[in-house]
């Protein structure tokens, strides 16, 4: 933490800008938007997992008193199969439905109750088709083809396939590397569909205007992306639409794409009134972007001294009904933490008849690293070496270049591992019969396009306007960055999120990019405002701007240090000295310039009579580069760990043979409760990122990656059997325990 001592605002726990409004209920979330004359829309959704739509009859529904309009896919332009085209088909079915719950008809009425009654009057005739629900179903030779236009690039005949993407990488000589190993082990691991389980359901309000801009208010992680895709889906131009982001009650990657916005806007166009639409909790869990399942086979070759000689990974990712699964992230993450010269990786993306998967924090990473880190723990035990020491032996280091050919100028993995090894947790004694395990993770951290406008007002008050949706208090951290540039208290800075009309294009808030990319835009704009203030001061003193120093919010004449102007004085006189003082800046930051690492330690106790797992202690260690707001960094680490723990222990989307989700509610979809968890201990490691003016790295995604293997391996160590399938629910753990005990009994008899 010593690196933060040179800063005045950064590294301090400033009061969050959004705290008061959220605590008092004043904050405006999606459901709180009120527009005069608003009417209410609902969706009719498919009762089948895969079926042709033969006919849709809405006449009786439209005749119901209070119904204003209906829309089907025929009301939208026919798009190709680029990304927006896929999104369009995900929002509303065209010609056939692809999963249970797929939207078919949108209805809008005076009240939600009337709209729901009208929905019951719509008649849709279907022709059921065979469906593929699992990865194994979808890749079978006789699998029903979900999309005729998708081709498997490995098929020389170019036949349609459910396998639509293959990524293959070879580094060094894997065969030679495995031949040099003393121990070679291989296992296959499985993770299910799960959901981000954000608390606020999907909701939006749309108001169409034929003569000026149409407006959409929505809970989203990326309102510029919503504008772009809705424009394409409705046949409008981006100039025609302004998107206003509301406060967002959780997203975690699941609210980066449109769900209802285009439908609400088209209903508003047909009805001539503003339209509000919101998903029920059941609709959210059925239809709003769960996380892809994956089947991952890993092979490790290792010497007795702990040197990994070769790695091999084979990954299948289930994207649900439409393309978009992050297989590339799995490839990029599975082995990247380690300096291994010989490796082979192949990954396949597969469509199935389940709702399209969406991002969840580090998309693709947890599934891949669950397999790698679990097997690494197993081989470390086999060669009799401490699992942290095995990782230290092979960890990527400063200026290293690993199998992904990504150079690491500063790599914080070693410091994270050392912090874990030396922690009170790892040094503490473990109760007999319990299990302890560690897991490491790498995340590349995104960059991308961000814009910011910084404006000086009277009394030295500064406003910071950005286009980054605030998911976790980032308005406060961006205000801290501006305060640091101006060298003034953070209380003088107000940061806000603007709509698409009032700030430059900004990418989604995701990929751990906000403080990295948008923070740099804020810093550059603030520096330009300081230059303008120096020019104003220089003009009054009849010196050059180079003769003006800026220190602690004050302009100082270096030729006559008695002459000073505070930021407040410059702001007060701006109108008389040339007009408003403001600057806008935009950046396009390359991805991967601030990669980070995390290491987690987990202790568990397993009830061998029921299979129930109790977490005894959990510690998350992570390289933040520089923690702009340490409390919020800790919160990100704890939140990601808890979500990963839920993934490891309880969470899964359970489908029946007809493709119907069986647990579409929080009573049956089991997320961790406070009573399930110990306090998540945190250790912030700071290895400054030289590619960021303040050394920042992203912190939001890495903490969800290690828990799957940390929890799974801790359970394995407690029961004496490998956990290869998640969630490690009580029935599954009990089955593993009984099998392990039966095996031990047979060994004794033999």
Overview of this structure, please?
The chain has 20 helices and 28 strands. With 750 residues, it is an alpha+beta fold. The chain folds into three domains: 2-26 and 447-589, Aldehyde oxidase/xanthine dehydrogenase, molybdopterin binding domain (Aldehyde Oxidoreductase, domain 4, 2-Layer Sandwich); 33-129 and 202-278, Aldehyde oxidase/xanthine dehydrogenase, a/b hammerhead (Aldehyde Oxidoreductase, domain 3), CATH 3.90.1170; 294-445 and 592-744, Aldehyde oxidase/xanthine dehydrogenase, molybdopterin binding domain (Aldehyde Oxidoreductase, domain 4, 2-Layer Sandwich), CATH 3.30.365. It has a seven-stranded mixed β-sheet with strand order 3-5-1-12-9-10-11, sandwiched between helices. It is globular. The termini are far apart. The model has no long low-confidence stretch (mean pLDDT 95).
- Reported CATH architecture of the largest domain: 2-Layer Sandwich
Instruction: Determine the N-to-C terminus distance.
Output: 57 Å
Q: How many domains in all?
A: 3
Task: Say what the CATH topology of the largest domain is.
Answer: Aldehyde Oxidoreductase, domain 4
| Overall mean pLDDT | 95
Structural class, by secondary structure, is alpha+beta
Give the fraction of residues assigned to helices.
25-40%
What best-fitting shape do the alpha-carbon axes yield? globular
Q: Low-confidence runs (pLDDT<50, min 5 residues)?
A: none
According to CATH, the homologous superfamily of the largest domain is Aldehyde oxidase/xanthine dehydrogenase, molybdopterin binding domain
Strand content: 15-25%
Oligomer: single chain
Q: Helical element count? A: 20
Tell me the number of strands. Answer: 28
State the major sheet: 7 strands, mixed
